[in-house]
Each structure stands twice: as C-alpha cells, then as structure tokens.
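The protein record passed on for reference:
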Amino acid sequence: MAASLDPAAAGLALDSRSLDALKAQARQDARGAAKAAARQFEAVFLNQVLKQMRESLPGTDPFSSEATKMQTSLFDQHLAAKLAERGTGLADAIAKHLERLLPAAAPAGAQAADARANVTRGEIVPAARFATAAPAARIAQRAEVAPQPAASAAPRPATTDKAGFLDTMLAHAQRAAQVLGVPAAFVVGQAAHESAWGRREIVGADGVRSFNLFGIKASPGWKGAVAEALTTEVVGGVARRVVQAFRSYGSFEEAFADYAKLLSTSPRYARGVVGAPDAASFARALAEGGYATDPQYAAKLERVIAAARAAAGPA
C-alpha cells in the first residue's frame, strides 16, 4: 500500500504539514486520501502503543531526562512509521471502512469536495484526536477491527515474570553454562539482567523480535541479521541514549549458543569468564572485558545472578 500513496503524505500525521498534504491529496483523489489517512492513523496508533508499553514497564530509568525522553519519543515515532510502512493490517481495514463512507458514483468534483469536508471534520484523519486518549474499544469500533495487530507487530517474549522466564530459559542456559564451565544461574542471571527478566527483549525497527536477551551488539564481523534499537551508553561518565545495531537470532536457542561462543572464544572475556569460581568473579570479568559501559555493571549483575540462583538452584 505504501507505494501507492502520495509521498507528501508519507510523514507521521503529528504536524500541520502532513495534514495539509492530506487535504491537498483529498482534492484530487478522495479514495487515495482515505488510504493515506488510514496509514497515518496506523502509524500514530502504533506510536501510542509503544508509548504505553514503555510506561507500563516497572521502575524508572535512572538516566532519564527531558532530552533522553525526547530522543526516546523521536525513536518511537521512527519505529512506528517503519511498522506502519511494513503494514499490520490495521490501515487496510480502516481504509476499507472509510471508502464505504464515500459516494459510490459521485462525480469527481463532488467526491473531492466530500473528501475535503471529511478531512476538515477529522473523519479521514482522526489520529490527532484518537492517539491522545481514545480507549481501545472506541478505536476498534471505528476501525471495525480489534487492535491486536499493532501489538503483534512488536512481539514481546512469551514470559515476563521471573518464574516463567526461568522456566523458559533455564534449559538454554544450562547448555551455554556447560560450554563456559560455570553454573547455569550465572548465564540465566545475565540474560535476566540484560532483558529485565524478558520484559525488554530487543525488537528491531521493522518490528521483528531478535531473541537477543544479552544485548550483544552486531560487530563489523557479524554476518547474521541485525536489529537496530535505542539503548543507554555511558560515555565519559555521561549517560546517552543512542541507536545501536544488535545481533538478531531466529530463536532463544541460537541466542544462548552465540553468547556462549562469544564469551568462550573472545580474548576479552574467556580468561576470566570461563570457569569463573563465583558470581562476583564472573561479573567482574565481564565488566573488565568491556561488556557494558555502566560503571556499576558488575555489582548489578551479581545481584541479579543471586536472585536467579535463589529461584533456579545451583544447577
């Protein structure tokens, strides 16, 4: 659908320029404007879904500021536009609904006039009103579809509680731990720390899940798939929100296997990580090897490993 839309209307409908572009298109092609408006609505709706998902996460980012919030908001708008461009089915359903409201056999001039009136009333471009506070039931009623497709565009892990996370990941962690010669709790603990117990699995701009629970970045030599995502990096003691390229996998099994391979073969980690006698040594070796830029990484990781070990046992 994206290829048939007027390029001038391709921006996210959050400013007057995008609305003016839709109005201009409506004067020439009411049905084309309906499709463009539907796509705009889908993008804004997805942006709102992303915002609500972030707000639902427990805790507060200690590095949060107005600048980082703005960067996060801009990234979410970019991600929403990418997801809408890929298509979730919502825009198609809305467009069909809007097209039924247009006169079936009206002359071209009358059709354009009707489209202009609809745009003015907000019927073709309801995003400015709907994206702020409209409940899901009202959105579903207007679009004649349930809002589930938007959620599936940015899938989350199957488990988001600690017990469920351990049940799902422990077998993978045990295989990785055998390669590294450490308890499985060390491995599953790091996966839990990096992904907030599965709540923050990396999802690429195209909405495809990466199964990357360890935050492993895509180095220049990486030949596999890549997922770009916003992350916090500490540079010179200052936390910054930046977009980074991360490795993307086809399953959790692949992710854990690649993690074990990386730590067991990289000179930066292998010497201290492989066969680490305790959680403190394991966490310290990772931090000293540069696994993360957070100066408190070792202490934080050690605490999460302790929690994972208490829940999963010493296996």
